[in-house]
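Batch job 17 of 40 flagged for manual review because the log was empty.
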Amino acid sequence: MPKIVTEHEKDMVREAMFTQGIELIRKKGVKRITVEDITSATHIGKGSFYSYYNSKEELLYSIIKKSESRMFERVEALLSENANLNERLVKVLKEIYLAADSIVLYVSPSDIELLLRKLPAEVADREASKSNNYFSRTLSLCGIDESRCEMDVLAYLMNALHFVGSTDMSFGERGREKALDFLVHAIADYMTGGAEQ
């Protein structure tokens, strides 16, 4: 007779998949994770995996979106603090890129494209809408006037931050941390220049 699993137990397995999925993304990257990696890390059988998700792409996309949602909640809280805009932006950038549970540096746009190609088309449509909404809400919370803060310049600065944060070079951890701190402050300064006075 099959074991009856309660909703609480299912929720615990889903949370374990999320937590272990974050670790796997940070260790292996999105493209190299297998269903076996996930089932081994969460101590469930392969058949059990498919009772939760139709594919590893569905799970990985779910992990990325859940992580993004949790991060944005923290970003909103940081932006509502009573501090000057530059200080809030530095905290936000560190939260997005450098927090212990952040996967931003480990997930590239090509990873998202790969996952979206293997998911239903309506998921891709929602993705484009949601990503634009997060960005617009963040700019709005910051009071940033897009006409005074060139988005293409900001995109290059963010890419530089992403590159330094995600590239494993042998220049030393201290140098990497200082470079990331410098970039975070430079981006905050640039964005502050585009904020409403």
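Reviewer: the log was empty due to a logging misconfiguration, but the result itself is present. The chain has a mean pLDDT of 84. Unflagging and moving on to job 18.
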